[in-house]
Amino acid sequence: MTKIAQQVSLAGIELRRRSAVPLLNQLAEALRTSILQGQLRPGGRLPSTRLLATEFGVSRNTVMNAYAQLLNEGYLEARVGSGTCVARSLPNEVPPIIVATPHASSRSGTPRRNVLSLSGRHLARAPTRVLSGPGVARPFASGQPDVSLFPFKLWARLLARRWRRPERGLTEHGDAAGYRPLREAIAAYLRTARAVRCEADQVLVVNGSQQALDLSARILLRPGDKAVIEEPGYPGARTAFAAAGAALSPLPVDEDGADIRGYRGSNRRPRLIFVTPSHQYPLGVTMTVARRLALLDWARRSGAWILEDDYDSEFRYRARPLPSMQGLDGTGQVIYMGSFSKTLFASLRLGFLVLPPSLVEPFRRARAVVDGHSPITEQVALAEFIEDGHFGRHIRRMRALYEERQTVLLEAAQRNLDGLLDVRPADGGMHLLGWLPKGVADFSASRRAADFDVVVKSLSLCSMRPRKMSRGGLLLGYAALTPEQIRDGAERLAKALARG
Question: 152-389 has which fold?
């Protein structure tokens, strides 16, 4: 297939020129479906962009941008000298699915419309995480912590200690809200480190931040409700709220964070407001106290819930962290969420919500219905890890390491990317944002970078209105990379961008 796919037409792909869906989106969806159905196999080489453009009678840029979108989503990969291929490891190991269109037919010849629900269609088409591959950290995949300094021997002892003589509770169903000592440890940590006002009874342990978003959307949003999301903002929140049937409304962000003064939504009151005030994703800015108070006041007057995602607030380098928005809330309208996937290791899949008292029981019951509870053994180990001070020590160690790596990236960018990518420092976090020169499409830049085995997420993927963006950007993750990998990645990225 490696050589055949370069020369032949792709069967089953039809672009409808009178459709309201842009040709770029149609082509990306068709290729994605072909991959998921197995028509295009892992490792198989795709036709060149020039050949595919000629085949479908579209511009080469349309094909290049469709490839770039699928590269960003993890369905394709590019290797120097080998062209563009189907990824050998599909994102999140997505099983093959068929997304029905109005033209799909059943065996009886009856049109199969709406095979998937509204929620199903949003979830099936959602962009997914770009994987680096087993045991390999590729520059500059974002959101990945460095696990080389994690005390795995200590972690193994904590797990083994409980399994030598397991308590009865370890082998039975647990509390849907989470292991009580872990909830107590989380509450104590948040009160000290993030000025969160909470008790253990308000903490709900979940399987990572995406489940926190999904539960919040299911419980708080009805079809047609307005959900306000930062623009640009976290795609995972956008998908969860859209899947719940919410009407999404953008909240502009500038160097001082989300700004309700620039909000241009309809007069309909919002039901849910999602923000990342401590380290905005993806821009990396911090919301000022004045804007936090203004947002709290707006939510109070609107009767809206605020969902505060504090996803990597522990990694702040140049100033003390501002108190959480939840800590400033005096009316019980803020839901606070966090995750251990970025602070410890990604496969741990443990996160938490801190809920206002009125929401504790509805969320606990919903969690019980959805999947019962998170794995008990990992919760027990994590509780002891926090209580014994290991978590705090690990955070301090990684904070110093990540600050050094951000400095290395800034120096490498200044040396190699001057005039190609404007990479600016940030007060914290695990990635930096590089701004492309005006007129340079970030989708295309991301695709060129992939040709040099460099993974950079385009800022457009984080936007509800990418065509209205005045300038494109690339996200550069650095936390999991050694200084040598950072410098080598910057050199390869410079070669890729210079080709444009």
Answer: Aspartate Aminotransferase; domain 2 (3.40.640)
